[in-house]
Amino acid sequence: MRVVAARGALLVALLVLWEIVGRASNPLLSVPPSAVLPALRDLLLLRSYPDLPASVLLTLREIAVAYGLAVVVGLACGFALGFNRLIGSAYGPMLAALYAVPAVVWYPSLMLFFGLDAASKIAFGFLLGFFPVTLAVLAGIRQVNPHLVTVARAYGAGPLGVFGRVMVPAMLFTLVAGLRTGLALAVIGVIVGEILGSKRGMGALINHAYGLLRTADYVALVLVTLMLVVGSDVVASLAERRARKWSES
Fold it and tell me: Does the model's pTM come out above 0.85?
């Protein structure tokens, strides 16, 4: 209850500060919450942007495809790097160095290669989600105690038994954390890609409202997009908790 009360107090303080600053600022550039609420109501009632449901579904579909590709390719690359010492030593540092490069520098090349349609947004979301998944798998494999593997083999466990009974529980928490980070970055990649250059999707609606100085609609669209981001993180958090309980049991 104290945590909830502290969060509520912080939220109220931020809203009050936002209202004061918004009323004192240029209405074309800043709006108070009292002006955002009517815009949010019109947005949810499909008055200001009737194509909102189609845009949300398109963005969610792009996120699902980008994250699915990031998980499949990331798991494959991570296990290849982790189980083969030569490949891991040769390409692991290169992968970490590429991950340190700001991802936004790759987006113009992706736009030139894939165009302005959904493919470039999916590629950008995949690029952002791929690295944390791969590196999480690699880190999880490296943190497995080799003595446990030796003991399991001494008791007659085969490769699948060692992997399922020893390695998976040991690396599960790191792996799930990487999957959660990959989901968050894939969501960010798709939405940022839509904002930087797209004709459809939530990012395109945000860019449209911002370009026309419809500041209240812009903030309302950002809030709806924020709900998508927070919702995906909540789902990932629940999965992480279940994985933690399973690994501790």
Answer: no
**Average of per-residue pLDDT across 88-116:** 81
The residue to which tokens 């030139």 are assigned = 112
Count helices and strands (H / E) in the chain. 11, 0
Cβ atoms within 10 Å of 33's Cβ, excluding its own: 14
CA dist 233 → 74, 92, 194, 236 (Å): 19, 27, 20, 5
Q: Residue 205 contacts by C-beta under 8 Å, 6 or more apart in sequence?
A: 49, 51, 52, 55, 221
What is the torsion angle, in degrees rounded to the nearest 10, for the CA atoms of residue 206, residue 226, residue 133 and residue 126? -20
8 A C-beta contact, residue 173 and residue 243: yes
- Average pLDDT value over all residues in the chain: 84
H or E stretch covering 120: helix 118-142
Q: What is the pLDDT of residue 93?
A: 82
- Region 160-169: mean pLDDT is 69
Taking 90 as the threshold, does the pLDDT of residue 71 lie above it? yes
- On whether the CB atoms of residues 143 and 170 are closer than 8 A, the answer is yes
Give the Cα separation of 38 and 35 in Å (integer): 6
171, with CB counted inside 10 A (0-12, 13-18, 19+), is buried
Q: What is the tens place of the pLDDT at every residue in 135-162?
A: 888 888 877 777 776 777 776 766 666 6
CA gap 193, 190 in Å, rounded: 5
